[in-house]
Amino acid sequence: MAKAVAVTGNQAVAEALRQIDPDVCAAYPITPSTEIMQRFAAFVADGDVNTILVTVESEHSAMSACIGAAAAGGRVVTATSSQGLALMWEMLYIASGMRFPILMALVNRALSAPINIHGDHSDGMGARDAGWIQLYSENAQEAYDNTIQALRIAEHMDIRLPIMTCMDGFIISHSIERMEYLKDEEVKDFIGEYKALNPLLDIDNPKTIGALVLPDYFMEHKKAQADAMGKVKAVVLDVAERFGKLSGRSYGLFEDYRLGDADITLVIMGSAAGTAKDVIDDLRNRGIKAGLLKPRLFRPFPYEEIADALKGVKAICVMDRADSSGGYGPLFMEISSALIHIKERPVMINKVYGLGGRDFLPEHAETVLNELAEIANTGKAKTFKEYITVRE
Amino acid sequence: MKPKGWKDLTPGGGVILEAGNADEYNTGSWRAFRPEWKEENCIQCLFCWVFCPDSAVITKDGKMTGFDYKHCKGCGVCAYECPGKKGQKAIVMVEEGK
Ligand code: SF4
Ligand code: SF4
């Protein structure tokens, strides 16, 4: 029997990191991810893990230390949020370009200014192009499960890329939910032993890493990296299947909720998907064919699979908890790209919601779904992109 | 040597597994001016050997004996630092092809 607990998302992820027992953790705590490192530092101090905890003076240094430790040959983890991730930016590309399977718990938070500490996806979306795999979670259980699956994905010999497991700041990180932990031995067995590819601490075989690559070879290196990214989907599914057998919880590239015969659909990521599912159920009870698609794997984005799942829907609203100022929301852009190749495209609209932790309530989902029902009837949208729950 | 395709790169993000393979890089091809050694002015101070950024000054039994032109990139640092004898430099830079 798995152990049922009532914990915060941060606590759940800290517990996953304890069970993983990484070689090195370098971090610079920042709200709302602070509690992960606070708890993990206690595990280190109490001797519950064998991890070397490197306390640094900034997130830039945290990621640099992670890269150094990964180059040495260690299994490495860290956690951050918002400005912290932004400060890591240049090092993110180095971690992925050097193909180090570093695990980062990202507790999503808005980016300044104005300064704000609450949850939205601006930080994760900003790191979208950095060559990291990204998994998003709906609740504490998913954040815990994704953390454990993440290492298997990142460390797979076909992949060897860094991975971010994302959860909404405060809404998930600080809310207490009922969830289940795996046993320590189960996690240990599941993640297996880590074998670094070309560890620098293998001093009998000296090597050079991080050498200059000029125009004659740069694209070959980037192509090799892109090819590894291309193999991630298959590995995610394979790892999810094994994890399902162990935990009884099933995961995919995304979750489709009452989508099969849906006329109108929300595409929504993270905690707000949970809120929206309740509303979908209500509408279904009233005979309205509403459905929902919740992306889990955002990088690489599963374009073909999502296009397949959304085929036949009449009207879609993509809900973005981040904005690309002057463009559509980042999730909307991906869904549009996914649907560009299908013949009978649904009408698509984009709503930006929940920035800086603004509440997303069932009535907001209902308003959007009502609008979608009208669009499905008329075939016409009034506005393609709109901020919702904002005061005039 | 035919350049490798992306599938033939060493797995793991730009890693070089052959230690010391910079030796194979012909930095001598960059050279526009070539250092030439005038043995008669050399006092064997080994300043050239200390200052050369490419380890291109060849020594034998603790004495300067000439240049490794495969790696000497012709920067002229050795010639600049060389004290020589009685105001006469023991290293002079000569334009390549002349
Ligand atoms: S010219 Fe420069 S590279 Fe060549 S031997 Fe002198 S110091 Fe070394
Ligand atoms: S610096 Fe000049 S004098 Fe000194 S060892 Fe070199 S060539 Fe001879």
Quick structural gist:
The complex is a heterodimer of chains A (392) and B (98). By secondary structure, chain A is of the alpha/beta class.
Overview of the structural elements:
The complex is a heterodimer of chains A (392) and B (98). With 392 residues, chain A is an alpha/beta fold. Helix content of chain A is 41%, strand content 19%. Chain A is built from 13 helices and 15 strands. Chain A has helices at 9-20, 34-45, 59-72, 82-97, 122-126, 140-154, 184-191, 218-230, 232-247, 272-285, 303-310, 330-339, 362-378; strands spanning 3-8, 24-27, 52-55, 76-80, 103-108, 133-136, 163-168, 176-181, 254-257, 264-267, 290-295, 297-299, 315-320, 347-352, 385-387. Chain A has a seven-stranded mixed sheet, sandwiched between helices. In chain A, strands 9-11-10-13-14-15 form a six-stranded mixed sheet, sandwiched between helices. A two-stranded antiparallel sheet of chain A has the order 1-8. Chain B is an alpha+beta fold and 98 residues long. Chain B has one domain (27-95): Alpha-Beta Plaits, CATH 3.30.70.20. In chain B, the strands form two sheets. Chain B has a two-stranded antiparallel ribbon with strand order 1-4. In chain B, strands 2-3 form a two-stranded antiparallel ribbon. Chain B is elongated. Chain B starts with 32 loop residues before the first strand and ends with a strand. Chains A and B meet through α8 of A and loops of B. Bound molecules: iron/sulfur cluster (2 copies).
How would the blueprint of this fold be written?
The complex is a heterodimer of chains A (392) and B (98).
Chain A: E1 3-8, H1 9-20, E2 24-27, H2 34-45, E3 52-55, H3 59-72, E4 76-80, H4 82-97, E5 103-108, H5 122-126, E6 133-136, H6 140-154, E7 163-168, E8 176-181, H7 184-191, H8 218-230, H9 232-247, E9 254-257, E10 264-267, H10 272-285, E11 290-295, E12 297-299, H11 303-310, E13 315-320, H12 330-339, E14 347-352, H13 362-378, E15 385-387
Parallel strand pairs in A: 2-3, 2-4, 4-5, 5-7, 6-7, 10-11, 10-13, 13-14, 14-15
Antiparallel strand pairs in A: 1-8, 6-12, 9-11
Helix pairs in contact in A: 1-2, 1-6, 3-4, 6-9, 10-13, 11-12
Chain B: E1 33-37, H1 47-51, E2 57-60, E3 63-67, H2 77-81, E4 91-95
Antiparallel strand pairs in B: 1-4, 2-3
